[in-house]
Amino acid sequence: MNKGIGHVNVGDAIDSFMLIKDVTKGVTSNGKPFLTLILRDSTGEIEAKLWDSTKEDEALFIPEQIIKLAGEINQFRGKSQLKIFSVRPAQLTDGVHISDFVEKAPVEKKVLTEKLTEAIFEMKNPTLQRIVRAFIKKYQEDLLNYPAAVKNHHEYVSGLAHHVVSMLQIAKELHKLYPQLNKDLLYAGVILHDIGKIRELSGVVTTSYTVEGKLLGHIPMMVEEIALMAKELQIEGEEEVLILQHLILSHHGKAEWGSPKPPQVREAELLHLIDLIDAKMNMLNRALDKVKPGEFTERLFAMDNRAFYKPLFEEG
Amino acid sequence: MNKGIGHVNVGDAIDSFMLIKDVTKGVTSNGKPFLTLILRDSTGEIEAKLWDSTKEDEALFIPEQIIKLAGEINQFRGKSQLKIFSVRPAQLTDGVHISDFVEKAPVEKKVLTEKLTEAIFEMKNPTLQRIVRAFIKKYQEDLLNYPAAVKNHHEYVSGLAHHVVSMLQIAKELHKLYPQLNKDLLYAGVILHDIGKIRELSGVVTTSYTVEGKLLGHIPMMVEEIALMAKELQIEGEEEVLILQHLILSHHGKAEWGSPKPPQVREAELLHLIDLIDAKMNMLNRALDKVKPGEFTERLFAMDNRAFYKPLFEEG
Amino acid sequence: MNKGIGHVNVGDAIDSFMLIKDVTKGVTSNGKPFLTLILRDSTGEIEAKLWDSTKEDEALFIPEQIIKLAGEINQFRGKSQLKIFSVRPAQLTDGVHISDFVEKAPVEKKVLTEKLTEAIFEMKNPTLQRIVRAFIKKYQEDLLNYPAAVKNHHEYVSGLAHHVVSMLQIAKELHKLYPQLNKDLLYAGVILHDIGKIRELSGVVTTSYTVEGKLLGHIPMMVEEIALMAKELQIEGEEEVLILQHLILSHHGKAEWGSPKPPQVREAELLHLIDLIDAKMNMLNRALDKVKPGEFTERLFAMDNRAFYKPLFEEG
Amino acid sequence: MNKGIGHVNVGDAIDSFMLIKDVTKGVTSNGKPFLTLILRDSTGEIEAKLWDSTKEDEALFIPEQIIKLAGEINQFRGKSQLKIFSVRPAQLTDGVHISDFVEKAPVEKKVLTEKLTEAIFEMKNPTLQRIVRAFIKKYQEDLLNYPAAVKNHHEYVSGLAHHVVSMLQIAKELHKLYPQLNKDLLYAGVILHDIGKIRELSGVVTTSYTVEGKLLGHIPMMVEEIALMAKELQIEGEEEVLILQHLILSHHGKAEWGSPKPPQVREAELLHLIDLIDAKMNMLNRALDKVKPGEFTERLFAMDNRAFYKPLFEEG
Amino acid sequence: MNKGIGHVNVGDAIDSFMLIKDVTKGVTSNGKPFLTLILRDSTGEIEAKLWDSTKEDEALFIPEQIIKLAGEINQFRGKSQLKIFSVRPAQLTDGVHISDFVEKAPVEKKVLTEKLTEAIFEMKNPTLQRIVRAFIKKYQEDLLNYPAAVKNHHEYVSGLAHHVVSMLQIAKELHKLYPQLNKDLLYAGVILHDIGKIRELSGVVTTSYTVEGKLLGHIPMMVEEIALMAKELQIEGEEEVLILQHLILSHHGKAEWGSPKPPQVREAELLHLIDLIDAKMNMLNRALDKVKPGEFTERLFAMDNRAFYKPLFEEG
Amino acid sequence: MNKGIGHVNVGDAIDSFMLIKDVTKGVTSNGKPFLTLILRDSTGEIEAKLWDSTKEDEALFIPEQIIKLAGEINQFRGKSQLKIFSVRPAQLTDGVHISDFVEKAPVEKKVLTEKLTEAIFEMKNPTLQRIVRAFIKKYQEDLLNYPAAVKNHHEYVSGLAHHVVSMLQIAKELHKLYPQLNKDLLYAGVILHDIGKIRELSGVVTTSYTVEGKLLGHIPMMVEEIALMAKELQIEGEEEVLILQHLILSHHGKAEWGSPKPPQVREAELLHLIDLIDAKMNMLNRALDKVKPGEFTERLFAMDNRAFYKPLFEEG
Questions:
Q1: Domain HD spans what residues (chains A, B, C, D, E, F) (predicted)?
Q2: Hey, are the CB atoms on A259 and F260 less than 8 Å from each other?
């Protein structure tokens, strides 16, 4: 199987390495134990059942374990399911690594770093530039690895940086069209707006919410981080700090969406809109990639549960 | 008075030509008749009272009449009001024209036409290009004169074309960032999305809603126009026609905002977002132009009644 | 089994012809294939499982195929399910037809046609009468066959015409009570309001939404059809055409319910209310027919998920 | 002035008797006292100012006083206002009565009584008939005099009975179309549904809400009254009593509209819809009577603030 | 098993008496019948499957039957499930009673009675005191046995009285802080506010909604009961009766939550808030009792589906 | 006039000192300038007009100036208005001070300080106690002077401390009833929850929102302050700090009300409810103080625009 689990069809035979993302133990109606495995490679996920599982199986097949398996794609309640013929844990000699099984941004980390550096270089306001540089330095490693979300959009390695770099490109072009915009402020908002996710989310591979992520959320956490950083840089009280905190605080656009204050500065409004565009295009492009012209995508929860149509005339 | 009515302060003396936009007759608490005039020049509007008005005054001072007046700026219930010292209708020899008193887009019609032509020239899909050309031909005159709305955004001469041309520029850049987008479809949607306003609105100078504008609205009217045009061009039934109708129908994004179907095609979603950005930036830029750094704008009804702050550090 | 699948109880033996409405393939926890069949006759639907299905079964038992089967009614997760003992496809010599297995309106097509003709005959406004006649002619066949919806109300053969004829009767009586109403306008609105469903829905037997149904919806499609028909009849621009389009456009009553403009003409408001009454009475009568006095119906999704009570004192 | 205050135009001279509905004392900017009078005759209402009012004026011109006045119709802030030239209280010898100045239902009390009696005569269920008869007897006088509301619909003498009788006619016809309906239950619901308004509203001429009307509302009050009446008639515990209480309780359709339980019985749902139709037709007919073809009515608050259009082609 | 079904873990062996709360019959994919039992003891509930059930089993194992069973705790789709090894109905000689298997308030009935009596003794307003005494007398038995709800809060034996007594304590303290409050009115409201639940709910052990509970609800039923009681006590028409009815009617706070009138009397507003506090604290305390420090509770439907965190530092 | 401006009636003569809260300049319909003054004493506010005002008047009568005036209470558009007979600025020799004209909490600052100290003394958790002490020290002066809001509740000198102290009393009693509560956490939340208002509001006398108050709001500002304080006290990272930040962040209860995270800790939920009770009781008590038994208060905007009734039987 070379094409990856995201691209298989019912009936395909499978013989490949995969990563266990999640495991649940169950009991059949006959009282026999089995394991439900969520498996993934870099192209997608699939559910698999390991029937008549033993205590040894339960100890071997745990999350973040890589396995080698042979099987076949079946269908169960309208969804694909992998039927396992044989399975074993991967060994050192197999030469496979967790990083081979997770999805990555379509742009290299090196390129992402260059684009970020370039943007910061364009900034002229010293206060804004200093804050941005300080955060980039503090979080460089994580910023280049973290996803931008647990699911829905940019939920892959380097997703956070990929999202920021795309938004910077939009910001740059909109600044040309609307020269009244303060480009430095907009860049600073774009680069920092989601950095709070590094504390809100648990990590890169099997991402969930941290306790402080649940109780505070990435928005207030980042407002707080800017205050602490401003103190450290001895620029607290400068108006740029307040306005930048406002951009972060308001970038979800509405109280119902998690911003206790709505945008009240021009660049804050635009930051919200650019964030929306890049998140939605990322979701749409990935969902439409999976269907053929003339078909609808599955319903996309984060797009108000809409299914999107791929026109036929695009084929030509 | 050279600076224009949009820029006067309380206490300023006025001696200039203005256009009557609206007139209402009233009676004071002492039973004396007066006229309330809404006057405008190319920079803004102001209310004025003509006390002790006569029957002759009522006949002379009617909407779309240009007048010469002298007076002073007062304040009434927190709003500026023009106190009239003397007033007379403009005469032929004054050499003034209605077009001198209406606001215009900041871009010349010639430039707008060029940009439109350029965009159509870029299009490759023959069906989409034919429909767009046909509508441009049918409505060329009005498209270059109509405002994009009665109020809120681009509510000036050539506002409709100005809005379209700005949106085309955004569309072009986003297509570079997201090459999966069908540029022809997006261009066709941008150019046609608001053309129904030409039937929805009554005209260029003192714009209101037509009866069919109120009963049908510009969105269903434009869906209908595309059907009639497709029939005329003998391309009815082609999928491009259906998808283009869908873009028009869904471009307000939600049922509550007037789109009976939400966007269900990638370019429809993006058309909605680009429309939002350009309308909001137009509103914000014009409102912020009127205030000084450190101040808030008046509340903007179409921006959820928010007031926007102009940071002080932008001054430097 | 003579009583029909809509009236069986758990434990009943079944030996009859049925129509396959839908088929899904599944795999048991032991890895054995089976088919889930949705079967129907003219009284209702039931799910059935065909265990250990073969490739031949998959080829034989497909949607719109009539089958002869013997089995028994069981219960599964609170719903009735048909356990199959034996099954075979119907043969020519069985003398059964698809039309025997679909639900039909409780009124004959002939009667429906007469009632429609009668109503049109009552109309005096020539413009409205011409449009109505033209549409009746264009869609006569489908109008008498189509359901009024995929589910919820009048979802049976001739449902659309049955709905229209009931509404005409209400319209007629309300016109007597409120003689200010324009009866011709109201009749035209009633007859045409849902004709767009003929393009929105895929057909009579196994009804689903068409692509244009999903992307445009029956309301804008019918507004468009009236424009095209008016052009064909050379009556475009007459006020009756606009007002009739408004009635169609607004007949769902609110933007959230799919009408981009709310009713703004007296007859439009009434059309909406009459539509509501007939749809609701149809749903309620059919749900209450299935329960005994003293019981509640199942929850009705299209009635805000309410269950309705059938009083005991009605028995007497 | 013969045409009535509801039909005057700006500039008309007035010389007639009118009823004072409300009076407020004010002080001009010069510190002089004046009275703002709300005056009415049987066709409508108008505001009038009595300038330089004396203590005697304040004592003479009080609510429910009839006055003779001469004056002229002016306009103030877009609304008609009566300018008073001379005014005096009516005298016994003038031969005018309060009942001459209030709007009445377009149907005579005698006819309303006959129609009610007829409907009760049609009822066959003895329990329902007994309750209805008992209430008719208890409230006969008020039922024939009370309005159906403070404003919006049927807000005139006998409005309550007029509303009930119109609804009975609709109920009768819908029972013919949907014979499954329990006509007796529906009739009982129609007749009793708003009788609680007799306790909720203060009276017939200058109607406002009573304290118990504000704290309990007519719906719970009527549920309570049925319980007390059932006890008196010794039929408490019969299911008809419960179901009838449910019809009253649920007739506003939704919790947000004042019904703590939504309709859960077929006739309850229909009662709500019939109530809606008659209230809306009453509002619409009266608003459209005041405008000419080609015009819109004023915005109707109780119709979601919509303005309604009167088509031109109705003129013919 | 001594620890009770609410505290077991997967893998635990069970050998104890339990009460059958609910039974459903099912058929496996192999066509074999089985019973799904909902079992409970005084600490909680669990689902159990009785495979290959016979007609005799169906007759023996019915709701409110006590059984003796041996088995083991398994997991099925993320929830605990009891796997039955052996089971038999309890016998007289087992010495077990239904009351052993239902949850009870943590306060004795005797104490609850004393606290109620004490509160009534504190009341000084004779009218309010008489009504309260009359209801306590009428419903004493049920008031001490009924739960306060079917689920969510105080859903155990004596739950209603426990809820009332807790609320009385809060009312007493708030009266000290805000002495303007009318304590008698507040006490009367607290004691009577949920007594309508005795008619709304079917009973103490396997509680569901009665037909009148569904069609009227406990709030209008209690308003009605107060009217009937006031008549019996010959105090109808006294203002205390009206205000008390208002407190009952408005105690859910908003129309959407079942109160057709919102609180419009100070004590009505406070009654609503005290009710909220005691219901929420009851839910929270019971949910948090089940988790360890550092964990979140399950999602609580009646708390807007929130999960609550139990801090670690509480351990110390 | 001894009774204070909050208690005057129309017709009362006034001769007293008052504080100017706000001034607006206007021009009458005759073009004459006047000043609209908002005046206050410790009991309330009133509007006054100073006709024919001079440049000198404009310079003398400015906000925060105390004046001596004689006049009379009139009525204008349903509201009381003060008619000025004579007016002069207060002089040093008059012996009046701004503090005489502002409303104060009904509890002395000394008592408020004692109660606060007492509560902190009760706390046992050292981390929570340290944070609370540090904030009390930092803001002691302002905490004892600031109002709790610009309007609606506790909008008077020491309002913030008065609100906190009342809430502490409720917290203490609820902790007795629900001993599972963590009293220290609840106390810390109560004391700190609104301290952010000291930065959100401009000051004590003529209070408005600061720029950072508008752009960030008191909730995120206080979350940030706790982070900075924790750093200063070297206790950052302790769980108490996180949980306390969560209490502050969530104390408005819902995203729509300004809390980006809802309460997810037991004490956070209770803090929200206690805040609600004390704010509402403060509003209700002050509004009901102004009306007589048998009357309704004015509509209270912050109580969903409800008017509250004061029962007659409270008089006895």
A1: 163-280
A2: yes
Specify the pairing of strand F79-89 against strand F44-51: parallel
Find all residues with CB under 8 Å of F219, minimum gap 6, and list them: A260, F196, F248, F249, F251, F252, F258, F259
Per the structure block, which two tokens stand in for B59? 């006949």
CA–CA separation, B267 and B170 (whole Å) = 13
Whether A80 shows a pLDDT value over 90: the answer reads no
Q: Which of D75, D79, D83, D304 to mutate to test the interface with B (most CBs of B within 10 A)?
A: D75
Quote the CA–CA distance of A244 and C245 in Å, as a whole number.
51
Instruction: From chain F, pick out residues whose CB is under 8 angstroms from the CB of B51.
Output: 29
- CA B51 from centre of chain: 33
Strand ranges, E, within F243-304: none
* A244 within 8 A of A128, measured Cβ to Cβ: yes
DSSP conformation letters of chain E: --S-GGG--TT-EEEEEEEEEEEEEEE-TTS-EEEEEEEEETTEEEEEEETT--HHHHHHS-TT-EEEEEEEEEEETTEEEEEEEEEEE--GGG---GGGGS-B-SS-HHHHHHHHHHHHHH---HHHHHHHHHHHHHHHHHHHH--S-SSSSS-SBTHHHHHHHHHHHHHHHHHHH-TTS-HHHHHHHHHHTTTTHHHHB--SSS--B-HHHHHT-HHHHHHHHHHHHHHHTT-TT-HHHHHHHHHHHHTT-SGGGT-SS---SHHHHHHHHHHHHHHHHHHHHHHHHTS-TT-BPPPBGGGTTB--B--GGG--
Chains in touch with D (≥3 Cβ pairs < 8 A): B, C, E, F
Residue A316: pLDDT over 60: no
- Per-residue pLDDT band at A280 (split at 50, 70, 90): very high
Per-residue pLDDT band for D1 (boundaries 50, 70, 90) equals: very low
Give the model's pLDDT for residue D316: 46
Q: What is the pLDDT of residue E1?
A: 42
Q: What integer pLDDT is reported at residue B6 of this predicted model?
A: 81
pLDDT surpassing 60 at residue E316: no
Rounded to an integer, what distance in angstroms lies between the CA atom of residue A311 and that of residue A297? 11
Helix (H, G, I), strand (E, B) or coil at C204: coil
Element (H, E) at B165: helix B159-177
Residue in A228, A246, A258 closest to F215 by CB: A246
Token pair belonging to E52: 């290959």
User: Confidence class of residue C1 from pLDDT cuts 50, 70 and 90?
Assistant: very low
Chain E residues with CB under 8 Å of D217 CB are 260-261
pTM: 0.91
Average pLDDT of the segment spanning A114-139: 97
Q: What is the mean pLDDT of chain C?
A: 91
Residue B56 touches partner A, C-beta closer than 8 Å: no
How far is residue A22's CA from residue D38's CA, in Å, rounded to a whole number?
75
Return the closest-CA partner of residue C47 out of C39, C35, C59: C39
pLDDT digits 0-9 by tens, A135-156: 999 999 999 999 999 888 998 9
- Does the beta-carbon distance from C243 to D311 stay under 8 Å? yes
Coil vs helix vs strand at B16: strand
Q: Which of A42-56, C86-100, D54-68, E115-129 has the highest mean pLDDT?
A: E115-129
Give tens-digit pLDDT for B37-46.
Answer: 989 888 888 8
C-alpha D49/C-alpha D33 separation (Å) is: 11
Q: How confident is the model at residue F2 (pLDDT cuts 50, 70, 90)?
A: low
Looking at the partner chain, which of A24, A26, A29 has a beta carbon nearest the beta carbon of E28? A29
- Evaluate whether chains E and A are touching (3 or more beta carbon pairs less than 8 Å apart): yes
Task: Quick: pLDDT tens for B30-69.
Answer: 667 888 898 988 888 889 988 888 889 988 998 889 999 9
Token code pair at residue E215: 């069609």
